[in-house]
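Progress narrative, work stream C.
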Amino acid sequence: MPAQFADVIKNLPKKPGVYRFLSSDGVALYVGKAKNLKNRVSSYFQEGRPKNQRLTLMISQIEQVEYTVVSSEKEALILEANLIHNLQPKYNVLLKDDRSYIYVRITNDEIPGIFLTRRKFDTQSTYFGPYTQTSSIYQIIRTLRMIFPFCQEKKPQPRPCSYVGIHQCDGICVGNETMAQYLTKIEQIKQVLSGNTEKVKQWLGENIRQSAEVGNFQLAALWRDRLALLDNTIANQKIILPQPQDIDLVTMVIQQSAEDLQIASVFVQNIRQGKMINVNNFLLSGSEEGFDGEAIEQHFLRRFFSSIQDKQVTTVETFVQIFKQEEQ
């Protein structure tokens, strides 16, 4: 194992996450996901491991190893896909374009419908995603259809759609329910796809209570069953479909080194339209007396905000690139 990676690999957690191999100039060579970061990353540098020409060439160019810990393999899949799409690493063959992603599309038709698509082509529709596991999203949509039956017709029809007969559409297409009732269900589906399952559970619970109060126990039982279905199949899954927001998160971890220096690891996460598209982390160090934790934090933030004010940079991503170059 190369000496420069020994300490990094030694301290890798045995947790799911995404790792990045970088060249000497900080360019991403490869992005990968792992169920166990320590085992996966160390396997690249094990003596005697069979290596093809492409892998050998990639390993010879690695100068830095970075990683991001997540809470599940599903999160690792999503983050890996976003990073590959954004960074376009040289040695990643797959997932370099949107053809590998699946989105949930909710249309803006007279009767809003829900579809799966591999591309965003309609600016009037609402999209959730991307998903890298096709089977998972198909299961989620099938379950949502049983909880909140929705229609595939774009506008009212003289005959009920095929889903009415199998009780997966309540008949909005032929006027068997009001548009207000239908749009309320669509809103609940959006809440689930946004990860707000607790709000949806409260809404279902309120429907159970109201139905029981008026003596409609059959309807109350129906809402009860749908709440149980939500609990058992969706609410317990961690669906990574956040709101479409642009956020830059800066995290600092400060430790004392063996040489009595303050070492700060600055971790920057760039979230665009609700998806983590890039991560940067680098080190700052200083003497114990003159450069404590608070000073390190102020040093970074002061330079960032002054750069923004002077219009030298407009994003955290640009600032981090400049900052890295200056620190080298």
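Work stream C, second folded protein:
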Amino acid sequence: MWVFSDAGTTAAGDNLYSFTHRTFLEYFAAWQLAATSDTPENLADRLITSIRSSGWEVVGELAIQIKDRGTDQGADRAYQTILTGTENGTAQIRRLFIALLTEWLPGMPVSPNVARSVTRAVLTQILSPKPANNLLTSLQKCGSRHQVIVADELKSSIAAMVDSDQEFD
């Protein structure tokens, strides 16, 4: 009750149903994706393929959280796979996934090392010739779980830039 709503009938007269709320669809899709992915790495590979189309962002985040609960270091492994799996992709795909990983970071039970890797990827994108505008804002929303790590990486990155005598426009 309340999960499905009547959506009409087919031409043959068969009843059609839809999820009452999109949240149900996203939750069940995430469970299906996590359950049918043998490993967090397999899940990450599937997400890299699927998320390129709109509407998978919440499903991806939930699927990683679900997989993490049943797998040792599941979120870390999925994050690392996505980070390395998009390194050789187009700049647009790389930015998309770094943005998603950053947005998901506040609720994701990743280790400090993975949070550092995501922060470094964000900083690399920000300093690239075509920076993504929203990445630093997303990184600032990481909350208390990763706040110290993000601040430490920002300080280190700024210090390295100053030490390298890099020219700025």
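The chain has a mean pLDDT of 85. No further action is required on this item.
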